[in-house]
Amino acid sequence: MSIEVNNESAVEVDEAALQRLAAFALDMMHVSTEAELAILLVDEAAMEQLHVQWMDEPGPTDVLSFPMDELRPGTEDEPTPAGLLGDVVLCPQVAGAQAEAAGHGLMDELKLLTTHGILHLLGFDHAEPDEEREMFAIQRDILVGFAVAERRR
């Protein structure tokens, strides 16, 4: 599995942990080990530019997902085929403010946002209540499973 993490923000983060989380999430979703994913961390100005350009929304946001090959979750017997999953773009400055408001650390927020972004790349959405319940349940399962796996590491 090719997972590239590039930090272009001025915020120091545990890039290796984000890479391990992404690998864990993709494995849980039965995505091919031949799939490719990029995670990019950018500053507020770069995120605002992307947010305006692609979502026509003002200001920076926490996470944006840019799917490439429109891969979907696989099954244990039939994993997702190889391909370019896409890009997850994170803004640590926005995530930091959200983490503070939620009462947890920056890395916890970035893990949540990374998982959220990956699920969007796999076709999940939260526009409707039933979609939100499904997506957020999977997101929670991935984060809890990853936390358990990390404690065993």
From TrEMBL:
Signal sequence region: none
Record-level GO cellular component terms: cytoplasm
Record localization: Cytoplasm
EC annotation from Swiss-Prot or TrEMBL: 3.1.-.-
Co-factor requirement: Zn(2+)
Keyword Thylakoid: no
Top-tier EC class: hydrolase
Keywords tagged on the record: Cytoplasm, Endonuclease, Hydrolase, Metal-binding, Nuclease, Ribosome biogenesis, rRNA processing, Zinc
Annotated cofactor note: Binds 1 zinc ion.
Domain of life: Bacteria
Known function: Single strand-specific metallo-endoribonuclease involved in late-stage 70S ribosome quality control and in maturation of the 3' terminus of the 16S rRNA.
Similarity-based family: Belongs to the endoribonuclease YbeY family.
Protein name: Endoribonuclease YbeY
